[in-house]
């Protein structure tokens, strides 16, 4: 018999068998070898993959906390403006806002210095932040790839609990002006930090203009923080306090006073802040 006959006979037998297969079940005609799942323990995940998937994995609560934080700051600012209009007092709230802006930069520098130099992932309360900041030194470019809610939700949460009660209790326009500007700059400090890792071509004019005026920390100024010996330029709001803080060493011996280790060696990407533009 010919090969065509055997081929026809095989297919007719398959169709005949399928007619008797109970509904809801499937049968495989070919023998297969089932392989076990590979052991993924200790698998190193490429940071670029994590940043690509981050928008899909961002919890809804992150956006909720950011929205609540922004609302809290706006309420404080709005109350300051309204009360100032009613009392015709403008100079004090404006001056208080300027002081809040300056002190926010100081606070960001001191806090950043402490998180960078002391403790580890097991440190109580601050362990997660310490681990994240050390990871940022290893892969500095990733911060500019994350969404704003991812960068800001933790600070927004703190602002809600600290500033929220002040919104309800305080009626002093000067205090409200200070609280609104200071807490807003602190909350958005990480976003200013993120923008310092981005080139002008990737930023909107609304961000480029204040950065060129020195109102926000510049790309060049923050780049020095990621160069050896990794012990300066910690302020991330305007950077106005960097020179003052860099000239003063205090506290227990920090990590940055030692010889830089592999933990502080950045994984440079082609578009990262190491390629600076004017």
TrEMBL record:
Domain of life: Eukaryota
Membrane topology term: Multi-pass membrane protein
UniProt-annotated location(s): Membrane
Residues in Lipid desaturase domain copies: 101-250
Listed InterPro entries: Chloroplast_FAD_CarF, Lipid_desat
Keywords of the record: Membrane, Transmembrane, Transmembrane helix
GO CC terms: membrane
Family: Belongs to the fatty acid desaturase CarF family.
Organism: Eucalyptus globulus
Protein name: Lipid desaturase domain-containing protein
């Amino acid at each position: 018999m010919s090969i065509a006959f055997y081929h026809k006979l095989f297919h007719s037998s398959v169709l005949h068998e399928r007619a008797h297969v109970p509904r809801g079940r499937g049968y495989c005609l070919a023998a297969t070898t089932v392989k076990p799942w590979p052991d993924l323990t200790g698998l190193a995940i490429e940071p670029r993959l994590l940043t690509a998937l981050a928008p899909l994995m961002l919890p809804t609560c992150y956006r909720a906390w950011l929205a609540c934080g922004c609302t809290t700051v706006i309420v404080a600012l709005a109350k300051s403006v309204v009360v100032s209009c009613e009392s015709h007092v403008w100079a004090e709230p404006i001056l208080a806002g300027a002081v809040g802006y300056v002190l926010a930069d100081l606070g960001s520098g001191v806090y950043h210095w402490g998180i960078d130099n002391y403790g580890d992932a097991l440190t109580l309360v601050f362990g997660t932040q310490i681990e994240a900041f050390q990871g940022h030194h290893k892969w500095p470019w990733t911060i500019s790839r994350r969404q704003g809610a991812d960068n800001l939700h933790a600070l927004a949460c703190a602002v809600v609990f600290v500033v929220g009660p002040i919104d309800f209790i305080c009626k002093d326009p000067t205090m409200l002006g200070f609280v609104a500007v200071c807490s807003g700059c602190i909350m958005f400090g990480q976003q200013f930090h993120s923008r310092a890792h981005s080139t002008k071509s990737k930023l909107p004019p609304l961000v480029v203009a204040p950065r060129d005026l020195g109102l926000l920390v510049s790309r060049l100024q923050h780049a020095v923080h990621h160069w050896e010996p990794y012990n300066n330029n910690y302020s991330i709001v305007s950077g106005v306090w960097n020179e003052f803080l860099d000239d003063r060493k205090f506290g227990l011996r920090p990590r940055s006073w030692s010889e830089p280790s592999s933990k502080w060696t950045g994984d440079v990407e082609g578009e990262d802040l190491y390629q600076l533009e004017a």
